[in-house]
Each structure stands twice: as C-alpha cells, then as structure tokens.
Amino acid sequence: MALSVREYRARIRSTESMKKITRAMELIAASRIIKAQQRAQAAAPYARELTRAVSAVATFSNVDHALTLEPEDPKRAAILIVTSDRGLAGAYSSSVLKEAERLIEKLKGEGKDVDIYISGRKGEAYFKFRQRAIAQAWTGFSDQPTYDVAAEIGATLIETFLDEDGVDEVHVVYTRFRSMLSQEPTAVRLLPLEVVEGTEAPEKDDLLPLYEFEPSPSDVLDSLLPRYVQSRIFFALLQAAASELAARQKAMKSATDNADELIKKYKRIANQARQAGITQEISEIVGGVNALADAQAGSE
Length: 300
What we know:
This protein is of the alpha/beta class. The chain has a five-stranded mixed β-sheet, with helices on both faces. Helix 1 packs antiparallel against helix 5 and helix 4 crosses helix 5. It has two domains: 2-24 and 254-299, Helix Hairpins; 26-201 and 208-252, 3-Layer(aba) Sandwich (Pyruvate Kinase, Chain: A, domain 1), CATH 3.40.1380. Mean pLDDT is 84; it is low at 197-205. The protein has helices spanning 2-60, 92-109, 121-129, 147-162, 217-299, and strands spanning 76-82, 113-119, 136-138, 169-177, 183-191. The chain is elongated and about 125 Å long. The chain contains five helices and five strands. Belongs to the ATPase gamma chain family. This is ATP synthase gamma chain.
C-alpha cells in the first residue's frame, strides 16, 4: 500500500510540472495574440485602399487582364492551405485541413485536378504521411508571417496561374479570426480575380474614387493586381496567425485546468491509500495484541 502512495505522489509531481509548462505556454500565446491582432489591423487600411484602387480600375476601364479572365473549361486548380508549424493548438490545424479536404473533393467532383500548396509544417506532414503530392510548401513563420513570405507565395501562385500548362483556378484555405472564442476555417477563390471590398457592406454614398490611369489602365492593372493578390495572401496569413495563437491559448488553458483536476484526483486517491494503509497497520497491531493475549491466557 505504501508503494502505491509513492507512485501517486510521483504522478502528482509530474502533473504539477506539466501544469507549469502549459500555464507558461498559455501566457505566451495570450501575450502574442495582441500583437498579432495589431498587425492585422495595421495591414487592413493598405489592403482596403488597394482593393478600392483595383475596383476602380476594373470598373472604369474595359481592359481584359489575364488574372481576371474566367476560363471557359477549367480543368486544373491550385489550393493554398494555411496551417501551423507547431502543435499544442487544439483542433486548429485539423479544422483547416478538413475544410481543405472538402474543397478538394468538391473540385474533383467538378472534374478538376488539384495541385496542393502548403503553408505550415502540420499541413506538410499531413499530406506527406498520406503520400499525397505537394507542389510546394513554406514553413517556419506560421505565428509571425511577413509580407516577404506572402509576396513569395503570391508570385509562385500567379506564375502557375499564368503558365499555359498551369492551373485555371487558385483557392486559399485559412482560418479567419472572429474573436478569442471563435475561429472559422474559410475557403476563398483567389484567381481568377474576384475583387472583394471586405466583409462589411459599403455605405450607400461611399463611391469609388476617380483615378487617372498613367500610362494606361492595362499597365496599372499589371502593377496593381499582383500586389492585390499578395496583400490578400498576407491578410490570410495574419488572420491564421491570430487564430493559431488564440487556439493555442485556449488549448493550454484547458490543459492547465485538466492538470488541476488530475492533481486533485491523485491527491484524493493518495490520501485514501494512505488512510487504508494506516487502518491496515492498526488492524494488524490489534490482531497481534489479541493473539498474544490469547497465547498468554492459554499458557496459564
């Protein structure tokens, strides 16, 4: 019985050590979420004004651009899947991978071949484990993405879209940050270009600005559209980073709470085992005393 008590005490110590780790990770994630939200908010004005400029060019000119033309019979699509580099974030990566699998099945049901592009080690490991081909992967920045990475990803996707033997559509699957308690896996079509003003409806009197195109609308689109694609990818990476940190904080808080409950359970069982051991020892002593008394009485 004493050995069992020692085992439970060892488990209590190991669980307390684990609790310290999960608590520290929870606090680190909480501190980084604020910075991630600030980065997303800081990037929003640039993305909004760039979207308005692209909308104005598309509205006030009749130029057909390769990034905006709808193919008559699309046969091939590319999907950029934004996951995390590290685990301990609950169902964050698995949720976005499930959304990606639904999109892949939908595109294959439409008769399209699918090329997979990955951001994050979790997504890369997921498809490699299943021996499914990956066109290209980018890793090492999931919780702190930079615009340079978004520009590299955007350039790669634009290149494969413009290639004669490339893809006809480009989709992005990422996790949209709604709040600390809500992160939503989202799939959007990036190319052919669908100019989106944002999630909020514009005001009735919010008219597009009038631009003068110099040297020409075509040249302006050549410059703006790649930047627009890169800014949307950067926005998706920032949203995913904030979502990952929020999911990690929530997962670590749950792990810390579970550790508390487990420690209480182990302490209760250890106390019960200790009390049972004491009771057993007292019973043995009483039994020994009675046996000795009986032996003395018999000898008399």
